[in-house]
Input
Amino acid sequence: MCSRFVEASISLQLSDEDAAALRARAALLRLEPEQLAAAVLHGQRYQHDPAFEAPARRIVEKNRELYSRLA
Output
């Protein structure tokens, strides 16, 4: 079985406070902020968190029309 890794790039808008917190935490771990963000997302991929999913679903539903226009 052949496994492929496809790298993707995304852009995030963070508040100044969140960006500073990400940079600080990444520095403590001796990582680039992008590496830390990728690791967090990778870890969340395998976890079911209703506290995150319910608000995320509400936001997606609220902005569904906007997302379809931007697509």
